[in-house]
Each structure stands twice: as structure tokens, then as C-alpha cells.
Amino acid sequence: MLFQEFFERWQSNPSTTLQVALLLRIADALRESPDCSGAVVVGSFAKGSADRLSDIDLVAFCSEGGGHSLLQTITRQITSSKVLFTFDGMHDSGSPFQKFVFDDMSSIEIHVVSPKTELVLEHPFVEIVNRESYLESRTSPLLAATKRDIAVFRYGDRLLAWELFNCLKWLWRGDYTAAKRYLVKLGRAIEASEGSESSVS
């Protein structure tokens, strides 16, 4: 799906006004950035199932060595006064990511991907930037899985608030089963990590 189609679909949805407004600013910045080879939105917005608490899942492909510069270009579009939590990390040395939770409980995940990082796009996704047909080299004919086994406590304490935030979203949607299953897995992972730490000391 092209970005214009995406915008026409979501612009009249009052529950996602703030996410769409942020994404418009980011899209303009990505189109102007020489560091951006391609960029897409994946997840619930691409699938057409987004709601008031759905996060923006953004994947931006950078030129060689342009990962941190491109991430800064994106994050400059975010109003810092509205940010409750920020989480950051690296997929590898050239591929940073950052996650934000805002004071209205909306959120965004930004994943910047270097040319050397292996990542294949699965449909559906919303195309924002596609310089010289770059996205075609990254696209699989497969459809994205509807359910994934989410890694629990992968980044330790640093992203614990993000994991609990995801549980809050499931609870808001009435999916108590998903929230409870995740919390059980999370508790076990935390216990295991603390057990391994105590055994080392």
C-alpha cells in the first residue's frame, strides 16, 4: 500500500488522529533525508486493525553508515514534552532502534536497518520511501504471521516498562488471556535471570 492510500484510510479515524499526525511529519522528514533508502509502516496500521493504543511500527532502511543520523532525523519529529518513556538499543552496530511511549498512551517503535543487516519485509506494509526500488530487494512474497511468539525479557530491566505497557494494551482491549500468558512468561524469565545472577555471585 502506498502512503497516500494509507493516509486516506486513516485520516478520518478520530481514534488514531495523533498517531497519523506524527507519522505524517516523519514521512516528510524521511523523504527529504539522503540517509533513507526506503521506509515502511508495518504492524496493525498496515493490516488495517489499528486502534487508539496501537503503536506505529516504523522500519527505515539507511545508507551505509547513516543509521544514527537517520534515527535522529526521525526522532526530531517527536515532541519531547509528550514523552513518558524512551527505550533504545541496537540490532547490530549499524542498526539502532528506539521506542517511545507518549503521555496519551500512544507509542512508536522505530527500527533503522543498515544495508548489512538481514531483514525481510513481509506483506502487508505501507510504503513511505522507496528510492530506486530499494524495497523490492527486501520484500518477501509471504504474508506476515498474525501471531508471533514474542521474546520475553529479551533486553532485561531496560525494556521492562515497555513489556508491561504492551500488557496494559491487551487489558484495555479485553484480551486478558494474552496479558496473563505474557505476564506468566515474563515472571518466569525474571526469576530465571535473577537465579542465574545469584549463582554467578
What is CATH's topology name of the largest domain? Beta Polymerase, domain 2
Taking pLDDT < 50 over at least 5 consecutive residues as the criterion, the unreliable ranges are: none
Number of separate helices: 6
Overall number of strands: 8
The main pleated sheet reads as: 6 strands, mixed
Q: Please give the CATH architecture of the largest domain.
A: 2-Layer Sandwich
Q: How many domain modules? A: 2
Approximate helicity band: 25-40%
What spatial form do the alpha-carbon principal axes imply? globular
Q: Return the string of H and E elements.
A: HHEHEHEEEEEEHH
> pLDDT average, as an integer?
93
Strand arrangement in the largest pleated sheet: 3-4-5-2-1-7
Instruction: Tell me the β content.
Output: 25-35%
The N- to C-terminal Cα distance equals: 53 Å
Q: Evaluate the radius of gyration.
A: 17 Å
Q: Let me know the CATH homologous superfamily of the largest domain.
A: Beta Polymerase, domain 2
Give the class from helix and strand content and strand pairing. alpha/beta
What report would you give on this structure?
The structure is a single chain. The chain has 201 residues and is an alpha/beta fold. The protein folds into two domains: 3-148, Beta Polymerase, domain 2 (2-Layer Sandwich); 149-201. 37% of the residues lie in helices and 26% in strands. It contains six helices and eight strands. It has helices at residues 3-10, 17-32, 44-47, 67-75, 160-172, 176-200, and strands at residues 36-42, 56-62, 83-92, 95-102, 107-113, 121-123, 126-130, 139-143. The strands form two sheets. The chain has a six-stranded mixed beta sheet, with helices on both faces. It has a two-stranded parallel sheet with strand order 6-8. α5 (160-172) runs antiparallel to α6. The mean pLDDT is 93.
